[in-house]
Amino acid sequence: MYNLLKNTLKRLVPNDFIQKNERMLRNLAYPFFRGAAHRCNICEAQLRGFVGEQRICPRCGSLARGRRLFTLLSDEIERRGPKTKVLHLSPASYFRDKIITTYPELTYHTSDYVGEFDAENSFDLRDTRLNDDSYDLVICYHILEHIVEDRQAMNELYRILRPGGSGFIQTPYCSVDGSSLEDYSITTPEGRLEHFGQDDHVRIYSVRDLTERLSSAGFGVEVLAFPSDPKTEQLGFKEGERVILVEK
After folding, report:
1. Is 189 a domain residue?
2. Neighbouring residues of 198: CB distance < 8 A, sequence distance ≥ 6
3. In which domain, by residue range, is 28 found?
4. Across 106-219, where does the E strand assignment appear?
5. pLDDT digits (tens, 9 = 90+) for 9-39
6. CA-to-CA distance for 151 and 148, rounded, in angstroms?
7. Is the dihedral of CA 225, 231, 236, 239 positive or negative?
8. 228: in domain
9. How many CB atoms lie within 10 A of CB 65?
10. Are residues 26 and 88 in the same domain?
11. In whole angstroms, what is the distance from residue 183 CA to residue 201 CA?
12. What is the pTM of this model?
């Protein structure tokens, strides 16, 4: 039903109208998905189910990975205190708004280099021009697979984190223990789509390779793996998801 409504609307209404009125349109669709089996921890909607492989919330548009990230970040803020200084790279609007309203004392800065997301800064992660030891916590979700010079970006993340600081990092993965899929001779959007799954991706990491690269940048690294449990099902998390926790 959700995808049918979305695709029908795209055929009838200009895309810029949809983008400007996305929240209103979701509120119109939400009654079709009301239920008691599931809950979105971003907008607190009670749902009969989430939508598609990404388990989208039909009310706020949150993805499974964003909902889990909110639980991880909440735990980290509780541990560090409400005046933690956070840098969030390319934040989805639903996530940014949730953090700002839930933690008003938090120093929460956002950045998006290519202008795809609404953010206050546009730092180049290879050279942010930020001072050393600027942040207590960095969120770097689905960023590194876009950057050819990823080791340079990892070194920059390490530099701008304060001693004792931490970060949550995630990318698409091709495997856990294998090798990353990487070929710098593939430069066209069509080639990258075919080999890396998206036309602006330059690789697909394996979990092991990504952790080794982060370790080489100086980080302490822990892979957080999440088995299935009742909370996973209720909140629409993805079973088997992996998030990399780095510490300086």
Report:
1. no
2. 192
3. 2-47
4. 107-111, 135-141, 161-170, 173-175, 181-182, 203-206
5. 445 445 555 455 566 666 667 777 788 889 9
6. 9
7. positive
8. yes
9. 19
10. no
11. 11
12. 0.86
